[in-house]
Amino acid sequence: MNDTQQSAGRAEQETAVPQTMKSIPKDERPYEKCLSRGAESLTDAELLAVILRTGSRGESALELSRKILAQYGEANGLLGIYHMSISDLTRTRGLGKVKAVQLKCVAELSRRIAKATFSGGLYFRDPATVAQYYMEELRHQEQEVLMLVMLNSKGKLLKDQIISKGTVRSSLISPREIFIEAVRGRAVSILLLHNHPSGIPDPSREDIALTQRVREAGSLLGIELLDHIIIGDCQAVSMREQGFWQE
Lesser CB count within 10 Å: N end or C end of the chain? Predict the structure, then answer.
């Protein structure tokens, strides 16, 4: 074996050695780095490593975290965790049920924090604040979801609920179903929100048709449809603002 082959063999052996937390300089370990520089200084993988605390046999928590994120690509790793089920996560070698549950709970906690952040300034006649409030809840959905938001006489939230999952089509969703829930919830006015999994919130013909039918039914029942907001990926469209309302 010549010198070049021996060098290549040594390099392969070195890269095969798993990284342990002890092999990382102390001030660069995720936990210590968080203490000294703050959580905002951590990478996505380092944040996950702090949450997971331990890795698996021959693999550090940091290596395990990188492997989890890599499943959906570096750009979409965290979003991938939100979409993955517990059984999906446990297919990752070294990630057991306990760690999978931890990750799913952190993802759900993040969604609720994001939603609560906007609750203080929520005004239901302002489509922008409504879209912000429901953005994290709806934009990650993998199929179309129709949400009914019910308000009292002062425009305050009474209740919101998902009333349909799947394709939002006027032929499949009856205004009757919407207003049964609105009457049951004692709503004086309502909003509709639904997501486009494509990430592009442009209204379709079906969206327009459904909106018109609900508005007409609401005017007969005395329950006003204030808006129909379509949620995309970090963007939204108000059908009222887009001129689909004919007062």
Answer: C
Give the C-alpha separation, 32 to 110, whole Å: 23
8 Å CB contact between 234 and 198: no
pTM here is 0.64
Specify whether 57 is located in the same domain as 42. yes
Last residue of a domain, one of 85, 114, 143: 114
Please report, as a single letter, which amino acid is at residue 87: S
Q: Which of 122, 182, 116 lies closest to 149 in space, CA to CA?
A: 182
Most distant CA pair in the chain: distance in Å?
A: 89
| Residue 43 forms part of a structural domain | yes
pLDDT class for 13, splitting at 50, 70, 90? very low
Domain interval for residue 135: 121-238
- 30-58: average pLDDT: 88
Nearest to 145 by CA among 231, 245, 52: 231
